[in-house]
Amino acid sequence: MFIQNIMLAAKARGLDTCTQEFLSRYHAVIRSELPLAPEELVVCSMALGFGEPHWAKRRPQMPKASIEEFASFHGF
Fold first, then answer.
1. Within 10 A of 5 (CB to CB), how many other CB atoms are there?
2. Which helix H or strand E contains 49, and what residues bound it?
3. pLDDT, tens digit, for every residue of 23-71?
4. Domain map of the chain by residue range?
5. Residue pLDDT, tens place only, 5-26
6. Are 45 and 70 in contact (CB under 8 A)?
7. What does the DSSP 8-state code read for residue 54?
8. What is the pTM of this model?
9. Phi, psi angles (nearest 5°) of residue 54
């Protein structure tokens, strides 16, 4: 929710954001650049700037899994 609040505040100021979880796989590289304690990890990062609205229309769509493939609902 912390990141969501930053994203909402950025949008209110005319900026776009993109969260990026994939950098968590490179914790050894990140650790060499940031003063992190041994028990700390970077689990998410965020790009912040001015988006290009026309780019989203040109890029190919990623295939999406149906909700049944990755979630289950019990008692609903």
1. 9
2. strand 45-49
3. 778 888 888 888 989 888 888 889 999 988 787 777 777 788 898 898 8
4. 2-51
5. 999 999 999 999 988 887 778 8
6. no
7. H
8. 0.59
9. -75, -25
